[in-house]
Amino acid sequence: MFAISDLGTSLTSPPAYGPSVRQRPLLVEVIGVTGAGKSALCRALHQRDATVRSGFEIWHLPHAWLFANGLLSLPTLLRCGRACRWSCWEEANHIVRLHTLSSWVRLESSKGYRILPLEEGAVYVLAWFYAFGHDGARTGYMQRWWQAALQRWAAKLDVIIWLDAPDALLAKRIRTRKGTHPYAGWADQPLYEFFARWRAGYQYVVSQLIEVRGPRVMKFATDQEPIDRLADRILANWNSV
Fold first, then answer.
1. How far apart are CA 118 and CA 32, in angstroms?
2. How far, in Å, CA of 151 to CA of 21, rounded?
3. How far is it, in rounded angstroms, from Cα 187 to Cα 191?
4. Could you tell me if residue 96 is inside a domain?
């Protein structure tokens, strides 16, 4: 597990994506615990460059697509039910959304964007399985599905941007955010434990993706640098490739 102080020191150049080199947009996922600045960064990138699509979350996938992919995923869902002793509604929901996300990526890749950023995408789903899902969803009957999902998204994703900040600041951001945040009323200790579980999930999944030569990782501490400056740095780095 990296420390907050290590973030922002590992900006790496992503693969080249010029028209003569890449046949598809750069697929980027912005990850981090609640309050880290994922949505703010995606907005800043899109505002600066119209060829960067606005950030997308799995919760906004079309219902018709989810239904169709749910039918296609029935064998996997049945194995998941068996592995999780039929107590797996959330696991099934995440499986269907992950499969449907592949269809969304194919569609959006044809619209002329240079960069497709995900706010809560494949890494988010896989991290959720590790941190909060039933153990059976990754082992036994489901081990083949889990490994295939890691391999598939290691091949699809080009870059992971990992944002983080100290727990106390994350908690403050959540509690002062416009509108009511579902975790705003949590006490510090359970909130910090929640952050820790997400970090462990992200750490595990990112390490697995890297192990199979997956996406490059860019890490930033959003308490050390404003989001607008991060967006400028990221775009300048990519545009120089």
1. 12
2. 23
3. 6
4. no
Domain total of the chain: 1
Angle value at C-alpha 36, between 174 and 108, nearest 5 degrees:
115
CATH of the domain at 232: 3.40.50.300
Q: Is 150 a member of any domain?
A: yes
Cα dihedral 156, 119, 77, 63 in deg (nearest 10): -110
Asked whether the CA dihedral 187, 190, 196, 201 is positive or negative, the reply is: negative
Confidence of residue 12 (pLDDT cuts 50, 70, 90): very low
**pLDDT (0 to 100) of residue 82:** 86
Domain span at residue 161? 4-59+111-239
Four-residue CA torsion sign, 118, 160, 202, 155 = positive
103 domain-assigned: no
Distance between CA atoms of residues 205 and 160, nearest Å: 11
What is the model's pLDDT at position 2?
40
Q: Are 48 and 135 in contact (CB under 8 A)?
A: no
Question: Which tokens in the block code for residue 116?
Answer: 């497709």
Tokens of 208: 């697995």
Q: Give domain status of residue 72, yes or no.
A: no
Q: pLDDT per residue over 154-191, tens digit each?
A: 999 999 999 999 999 999 999 988 777 788 889 999 99
The Cα–Cα gap between 103 and 61 comes to 10
In the predicted model, what is the mean pLDDT of residues 43-51? 95
For the residues of 135-199, what is the DSSP string, one character each?
GGGTSGGGHHHHHHHHHHHHHH--EEEEEE--HHHHHHHHHHSSS--TTTT--HHHHHHHHHHHH
Q: In this structure, what token pair is assigned to residue 100?
A: 């449907």
